[in-house]
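Posting here for the record, re: iron/sulfur cluster.
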Amino acid sequence: MMLAEWRDQAACRGIPRWVFFPPTGGGPKNGRSGGPNTAYNEARAICSACPVQAPCLVSALAAERGYRGEKGRGMRGGLTPTERDRFTDLVGAR
Ligand code: SF4
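Prediction output follows.
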């Protein structure tokens, strides 16, 4: 599947950007104290039904090499920035 093709099928097309980049995204009250990070709930639900979740995640991981943390990254490929950091740590991709 070509780059432009999978983006055309993205379930997030037309969804406001703030849903995937919530203002309270990775703040200290969202997930870091052991509780669930609820700021991404709506985005996570959209991603979970997205037909192009896999190419989206691969694209995000490739584009974010060297970047860590929540700031300015948002939900992509069904994973929050922190979850993508954990994933790349697990597979040793960075
Ligand atoms: S997986 Fe999520 S962020 Fe990626 S294209 Fe689909 S809806 Fe958008």
